[in-house]
Task: structure prediction
Amino acid sequence: MDDETRSIMEAQSERLYGETRAVLARLQPLTEHLVDKLLQAGEMSLGEALTEIRRFEAEQGRRMSAAAHTV
Result:
């Protein structure tokens, strides 16, 4: 592999790594919520997980809306 190709691949790798970290950071609150619910229940079906995701997103939406009204 030549230096130019290696450089392009390294730049792509760094960019993708940064994007992945950003996505994981953004989803961390949801992940923590799902972990808590799973630990409480012991097991969770896909339908139950999707319901929890929807509840979490709805609550986040309400919080953002309330915060916007207090500013």
